[in-house]
Amino acid sequence: MLATSGTFEANARAGLANDNLQRALALMRSGFPQRRRLAVERLPEFEALREIGKSIKDHTLEHLDFYLELFEENVLASGGQVHWARTPEEACGAVLAICRSVDARLVTKGKSMIAEEVGLNEYLEKNGITTVETDLGEYIIQLRHEPPSHLIAPAIHLMKEQVADTFRAEHRTLDPERSLAEARQLCDEARAVLRPRFLAADVGITGANFLVAETGSSIIVTNEGNGDLTQTLPRVHIVMTSLEKLVPTLEDATTLLRLLARSATGQEFSSYTTVSTGPRQPDDLDGPEQYHVVLLDNGRSALLASEFQDMLRCIRCSACMNHCPVYAAVGGHAYGWVYSGPMGAVLTPSLIGIAEAGHLPNASTFCGQCENVCPVKIPLPKMMRHWREREFADKLNPPVYRSGLSLWAWVARRPALYHALVELASRALGWLGRGRGRFRTLPFANGWTAVRDLPAPEGRSFHSLWAERRKGGTGK
Amino acid sequence: MRIALFVTCLVDFFRPTIGFAAVKLLQEAGCTVEVPRAQTCCGQPAYNSGDRADAKAIAMQVLDAFEGYDHVVAPSGSCAGMIRRHYPELFADDPAVLPRAQRLAARSWELVSFLVDVCRVHAVAARWDREVTYHDACSGLRELGVRDQPRRLLASVGGLTLRELPGAETCCGFGGTFCIKYPDISDKMVNDKEAEIVATGAEAVLAGDLGCLLNIAGKLHRRGRWIEVRHVAEVLARMTEEVPPIGAPR
Predict the structure, then answer these.
(1) Cβ-nearest to B54 among A409, A435, A451
(2) 3-class DSSP assignment, residue A210
(3) Contact call for A437 and B247, based on CB within 8 A
(4) Residue A410: closest CA among chain B residues belongs to which residue?
(5) Which of B83, B117, B151 is the last residue of a domain?
(6) Which domain range does residue B143 map to?
(7) Do A466 and B143 touch (CB under 8 A)?
(8) Residues B6 and B82 both lie in one domain
(9) Which CATH number applies to A43-302?
(10) Which residues make Cβ contacts (< 8 Å) with residue A253, sequence separation at least 6?
(11) Engineering a disulfide at A110: which of A230, A395, B51, B71 sits with its beta carbon 3.0 to 4.6 angstroms away?
């Protein structure tokens, strides 16, 4: 997928000016955090579970080579295949080769952020294979040719009236007079349109929420059941996934599933949790004839043993973006690539480079909400700060910002000079603002005064007043 | 107890009254208060801009200036959080300095939580006849767990009624240099905050961090709302008569 993270500021302004988006985000802001909070309150051991979830992921990452090999061994033992992909190109190539080997024309897809990351749909379409997204949100944005704006609710940027317009424009064989006013009607229509696609598909592609090393299984969770139809009906099931989805055991996976649903949607468990192990076995009633796992690296292994390793614990629950005031202001598309919100602000620079994605870790107030709700305790603000350190070390910040910062730091290391300058500035600005008590504009402070007044200083610095009172013996 | 006041750069420059309110509250709690002259800033602007070298140099200056006191207290959760939570992280790979950073971190506090948790102050002798609302500044809340302490002391202020702010724990959009680097996003955040404050019907809004207060006051005034904005210490220390509210005409 082509990144537009470099124009984050313009993207953000567009998001702020988009009324439909703002209405949708206001709904999100009141929905997800509230549901998560209630779910967490109902589970007294939630905090303990977070610690366990973190340690499961940390342990796996410390021994990733071992568990990856164990996983492959067990996939092979169950009759499946693992395709190692270092790059998006290799991942797309592997999928295309599998599709060609069975002469596939139609591919159904469950939700997969990895497929988005490698641009799989465009690649397959270019090679003459039709792809149909079956997650309702993904289906909607596929019709609209838009990227996802959220990890688990890819069409959260849209209001249902916009979806109705899209369905009317795209489902041209249906009665143009039909009512699409209710969400239920939209769901029913998507279901009716998708059902024959499920049955006709040659290959089904899903993502994976977890990969289980001890059994060679992949696990998906959905609330629509579309993933099950995608992976059991076609002859071939391809799992598009990345190496940090691995956990050692089924028990570990169930622990993380308890965290995932609560953190994501406030459910105790998602409606459908499906474990796939290999292709159809002789006694199975149904299932695919082939089971493939395409395991993408795309820069992830380079994060191991770096200051960003903790990011690989992420289970893609979306709690961080659901609670992020910056995400809630600008929406997911502003981030300009597949991943958005705080997790995107940390992950995106490591996948497409800090030069392109430099704004993302900077566009945070470090309010700490994301880390506070992360089910695996990823220190997201700390890692955004690490990106800012890389950016500073590589001299990628604007020169005027760098020199301003150096000048300030130089003065701040000289207390006598600093105190004299602060007193001078406080007196000057205090005098200038003595009438109104605030400034509507001020030279060199436009970033501040463009959107708010600047309260005027009282007119004397604390340190000079303190020194005077000490001297005069009138210290309060 | 011998206390060193970490004034904070914003209080020093914009609103010394908050510093004097802190001194008064600490003295009334039985502390001896000193203000080391060699302090300037905690280094957060450099630290959060990725400039670790300057952040470390400024932090070293703080370590030197605040050596030898029983406790260090700041009228700001943000600066106290920097010293308490981030100095040890800043010197994590510097074994020569790390123990000093950890010692300073362990005895550095945000003002109101210090009064309640360490000095065991559970009430103040203040009166302020106002309906107020309270904004929880992010760093104090999430880095230091400052939430109940200011409410506890405000409950003891005569004539004061607290109307809780929905979204009190949501960031106001200040974020240090964030508010000038991304003014459009900051604007949206502080607009939402302004609307929520107005909807409470409160006559005044209080918080424990001057950065947030400057941002909130600036937005309220830009939109023509004359709700009083003050640091919580001014109210607790009976100093509301000494200065007009933040950003108000004199």
Answers:
(1) A409
(2) strand
(3) yes
(4) B54
(5) B117
(6) 122-236
(7) no
(8) yes
(9) 3.40.50.10420
(10) A210, A212, A219, A247
(11) A230
Count of domains forming chain B: 2
Is B146 within the bounds of a domain? yes
pLDDT tens string, chain A, 476 residues long: the values are 789 999 999 999 999 999 999 999 999 988 999 999 999 999 999 999 999 999 999 999 999 999 999 999 999 999 999 999 999 999 999 999 999 999 999 999 999 999 999 999 999 999 999 999 999 999 999 999 999 999 999 999 999 999 999 999 999 999 999 999 999 999 999 999 999 999 999 999 999 999 999 999 999 999 999 999 999 999 999 999 999 999 999 999 999 999 999 999 999 999 999 999 999 999 998 899 999 999 999 999 999 999 999 999 999 999 999 999 999 999 999 999 999 999 999 999 999 999 999 999 999 999 999 999 999 999 999 999 999 999 999 999 999 999 999 999 999 999 999 999 999 999 999 999 998 999 999 988 888 999 999 999 999 999 999 999 988 865 44
ipTM associated with this complex = 0.97
**pTM as predicted:** 0.96
**E strands along A81-224, which residues?**
81-85, 106-109, 130-133, 203-206, 210-212, 217-222
Chain B residue with Cα closest to A436: B249
Q: What one-character-per-residue DSSP string does A310-328 give? A: GGGG-----HHHHT-HHHH
Verify that B15 and B90 share a domain, yes or no.
yes
Q: Is residue B79 part of a domain?
A: yes
B75–A contact, CB cutoff 8 A: no
Residues B113 and B12 both lie in one domain: yes
The answer to whether B138 and B216 have CB atoms below 8 angstroms apart is no
Q: Which of B11, B40, B221 sits opposite A438 (nearest CB)?
A: B221
Q: Which two tokens stand for residue B107?
A: 């005895």
| B192 within 8 A of B159, measured Cβ to Cβ | no
